Hints:
This protein is mainly β. The chain is 12% helix and 44% strand.
Amino acid sequence: MTAIVNIRPGETGEERFNEFRESQPLKIARARRGFGGFITLDLGKPREADAVTGEPQWQWHLWIYSCDWDLYLDDARILWRRESDTARANHILSKLEGESLSEIEHDQTDDCFTFTFTGGFKLHVDPDFYGYDAADDLFMLFKHGERDVLSYSPKRRFYKAA
């Protein structure tokens, strides 16, 4: 369960997303496969390590969450959410490291996002998969130093949560 809060009065979820979009290009420091079909991307400038885990941190952390996604290289699909081999998925995702996020397209008609990277990579994010509910988040975007997270779902659109 998530509590919806407005940590910084006046800043909307859409404004946070636009800040992320305007900070491009953002270098990909780390790209990993999580549990199930989730993937995470660490982007931007390095920050101090996490005080608890000692893990390195970066300016932005993008968690592709409850959605269908496909990774393309030069218009050929090279990875998708349903890939069952985690080692293979991590190997392919590691190819993004060192590339930069250069553009984000959002099709508001079908709630799809396309994240374009240097090196010919594109990540297509789509809410249309089995068991999906319109209130489920396609992604969560964390900004280093902020106490809230920006989430996006077709039902709630851009919103900030704690």
